[in-house]
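User: I'm writing a short report section on ligand binding and want a predicted complex to refer to. Could you take this sequence and magnesium ion and write out the structure as tokens? A short remark afterwards would be nice.
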Amino acid sequence: MGRIIAIANQKGGVGKTTTSINLSSCLAEAGKKILAIDLDPQGNTTSGLGVDKDDLENTVYELMLDECTIRESIHKTEIENLTLIPSNVNLSGAEIELLGINDKEYILKNAVDYIRDDYDFIIIDCPPSLNMLTVNAMTTADTVLVPIQCEYYALEGISQLIHTIDLVQERLNPDLKMEGVVFTMYDSRTNLSNEVVDNVKNNLHTTIYKTIIPRNVRLAEAPSHGLPINLYDSRSAGAESYRLLAKEVIDREDI
Ligand code: ADP
Ligand code: MG
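Assistant: Sure. The structure tokens for the complex follow:
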């Protein structure tokens, strides 16, 4: 059976979206059937996968407000094996519109249950906050993957994130597990990156992916071309690292 992975960290700019786009695309390149779900109103996973976020009838917003079916919300991309439930700025109002709705923590899960068997992996890009959208991602997911940027304040906020995951596990989704941590934007030239990696290893008792994503300018350029890294610059260090991460994710047997 497939695995649903929520990519979460309430800190912005740590590489959630970059990881969502490129892990999805590299898993698809490895022959896996992938659905990416963009749960961030910024819609950067949507545009980064080449879908025009301002020209969409059915997005994750319409899905969550029960204005379309999940099959109607799934869009093709130009990438083989990779489909997308897109998002755009409309989603920023969803939090309020969901107030008072029964079981609002399970809206996404109840929809995804219809189609989960069609995919090998479903990758959910979370917004940079611990809000109802993130809770929906965590009730839908089997695991949470936490990107951590290799910088001085890397661990700031991580204890709230772990607490949120624990609460969701206790109250809403007892089967939720940690997928693990992936380090992003690593710069081998600085001692700081090495210190952050050591610090996280000593403080977080969870799986740490061996693949460390380097800081690579091609990763930052690719979204403006609407392409994932393996299609934008297949030989770049960024592409190689996300391919290795995809392989590690596929090879995990302990989940
Ligand atoms: P988040 O989704 O957590 O807010 P993003 O994935 O959008 O973070 O990344 C924040 C910024 O950093 C973006 O401009 C992105 O292109 C850039 N970026 C992310 N990962 C890397 C990397 N490994 N190397 C270089 N730039 C990166
Ligand atoms: Mg993002």
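A remark for your report: The chain has one domain: 3-251. The first strand starts at residue 3 and ends at 7.
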